[in-house]
Amino acid sequence: MAFSSSSTSSQVSWSSERGARKSPIPYRVPPLAYEPGVLCHCREKAALWISWSDANPGRRYLKCFRARDGGCNFIRWYEGPHNAFVQGLLFDLRNEVWNLKRERAELQHAIGDAVMQLNEQKKVMQ
């Protein structure tokens, strides 16, 4: 397991802070279920997240688990960057998953509208 030196938050971007979509895949393990634990500046176990930014799709990083609730600004890459092929592949797959999720939501909305119209037509016919 390779750890890089501590990074500043400007070097890592995670989707929730930019208002972008959430992770395209569910996490395989909870954010605190890795060993050996790494402590943040709060002296608590840092959470292990996955970046889905354009620059680092699929790359894992450690961040203070309480960062959104007033925790510290600790952040560190958990592993090195992917090679260009894997990075491009992850980027394309991430975008395809997001597109399919968006399309599914639009179709579900259209089905809901159609069901409402059908119910209204049934009332009119009765």
Task: Describe the protein's architecture and organization.
This protein is of the alpha+beta class and 126 residues long. The protein has a domain at 46-125. The protein is built from 2 helices and 3 strands; from the N terminus they run αβββα. The protein has helices spanning 15-18, 84-125, and strands at 47-51, 59-63, 75-77. The protein has a 3-stranded antiparallel β-sheet, with no helix packed on it. A hairpin with a 7-residue loop joins β1 (47-51) and β2 (59-63). The longest helix is centred in the C-terminal third of the chain and has 42 residues, at 84-125. The protein is elongated and about 70 Å long. The chain starts with 14 loop residues before the first helix and ends with a helix. Mean pLDDT is 82; it is low at 1-19.
Keywords:
elongated, single chain, 126 residues, disordered N terminus, alpha+beta, 3 strands
Number of strands: 3
Low-confidence segments: 1-19
| Biggest sheet layout | 3 strands, antiparallel
Write the H/E string, N to C: HEEEH
Distance between the termini: 68 Å
Mean pLDDT: 82
Dominant shape:
elongated
Give the strand order, joined by hyphens, for the main sheet: 1-2-3
Structural Rg: 20 Å
What structural class do you assign from the helix and strand content?
A: alpha+beta
Strand content: 5-15%
Number of helices: 2
Percent range of helical residues: 25-40%
